Amino acid sequence: MATPLSRSxxxxxxxxxCGVAAQPVCRAARPVSAASWPNxxxxxxxxxxxxxxxxxxxxxxxxPQLRDGQGRTVLMLAARNGAREVVELLLAAGAPRSDRxxxxxxxxxxxxxxxxxxxxxxLR
Length: 124
Known about the structure:
It is a single chain. This protein has a two-stranded antiparallel sheet with strand order 1-2. Helix 5 runs antiparallel to helix 6. The termini are far apart. The protein has six helices and two strands. A hairpin with a 2-residue loop joins strand 1 and strand 2. The protein has 124 residues and is mainly alpha-helical. The chain is globular. The chain has a single domain, classed as Alpha Horseshoe (Serine Threonine Protein Phosphatase 5, Tetratricopeptide repeat).
């Protein structure tokens, strides 16, 4: 029997989650738990450089220390995208500047490699 907690999340508008019974439930995606849906939403928001959605996910309990499948933090992903507002939001939420990915890169190194020099000073 499916419960709201066993359903899945796959969409998010720029300002709110869609869902049923106050749970983020949308079109088909992999199942997520109540504890992990904010993290999935944050990862999506960061990849889309959407500060409103990122703020919503953080307020719902997403971790600012979250890593993707390649071991990069959400701060690194925001830095790679040049998403200054998302970078500032993640830093304010406690994302550590000094974390390194498996290749040894920091968020500042990712920003610099992608030509986002304006973020390097913020991230160091």
